[in-house]
Amino acid sequence: MSKPNLTEKLNVVARSPFELYFDGEASALSANNRIGAFDILPGHADFFSMLLPGEIIIAPLDGEPIKIDATSGILTVRNNQAFLFVNM
Q1: b/e per residue, 23-46, with b = 16+ CB within 10 A?
Q2: What is the pLDDT of residues 38-47, one digit of tens each?
Q3: What class has domain 10-86?
Q4: Full-model pTM
Q5: Which residues, at least 6 apart from 86, have a Cβ–Cβ distance to it below 8 Å?
């Protein structure tokens, strides 16, 4: 197994039908699905998940963590790009 490249960035877009919560580079994001809490880091394998209600945390490369209260959501990750569509 190869070691992750810690210099990589995760490009994250988090939005609802009516609001853009975040669009930028992050070092990680955390959320919950039916299996439990999980983190997405740069270099993560392709991933798709329905999200459970709860807090989603995005760690931007600069600034304070972004916290989103989600009632529902979908997350896709591919090639260091994460897209969250929440509160539908």
Answers
A1: ebebbbbbbbeeeeeeebbbebee
A2: 999 999 999 9
A3: mainly beta
A4: 0.89
A5: 14, 15, 16, 21, 51, 56, 68, 70, 71, 72, 73, 74
